[in-house]
Design brief:
Radius of gyration: 15 Å
Protein name: DUF4157 domain-containing protein
Number of strands: 3
Structural class: mainly alpha
Number of domains: 1
Number of helices: 8
Low-confidence stretches: 1-7
Organism: Pseudoalteromonas haloplanktis (Alteromonas haloplanktis)
Order of helices and strands: HHEHHEEHHHH
Length: 142
């Protein structure tokens, strides 16, 4: 138990320099063996097969993200998924889903603006970039 508690404390301490404490108190993560993704025929029909079948380390739904055990201590993955939690929060579920699907259909996963934003921010975090409020930054981008 001590190791898990330490990991959470270490994670929180690192993320607090970028994400407000109040935000982090409302964001959650779950370590899972398999990333939960919707696999409906209708989603495949609108061109999301590659996204559905793509191997990912994490995925975010509203204020909760799901990650695989091998990345549970990877701060960059947590940072990236927390950026998506902010995006969900700012747009609301319906608007986020509609925009995310449109971006994946139009640009593909790697060039989708939401993903590019999250990857840019997690790269900044990884290189120990200047500290700033990520939630405010993302909000200003909308």
């Amino acid at each position: 138990m001590f190791i898990k508690e330490y990991a959470v404390i270490h994670l929180l301490a690192n993320l607090l320099t970028f994400y407000p404490h109040e935000f982090l108190k409302t964001a959650f993560y779950v370590v899972v063996e398999h990333i939960p993704k919707p696999d409906f025929a209708g989603l495949r029909e609108i061109g999301l097969s590659d996204f559905i079948d793509m191997d990912v380390a994490g995925i975010t739904y509203k204020n909760t993200y799901y990650i695989l055990p091998h990345v549970a201590r990877n701060l960059r993955v947590h940072f990236h998924e927390l950026a998506h939690v902010v995006q969900w929060r700012e747009l609301g579920a319906h608007a986020f889903i509609m925009r995310y699907i449109n971006e994946i259909q139009t640009c593909g996963y790697n060039d989708a603006p939401f993903e590019k934003m999250a990857y840019k921010l997690d790269a900044h975090f990884t290189i120990n970039g200047n500290k700033f409020n990520i939630s405010d930054y993302i909000t200003q981008q909308f």
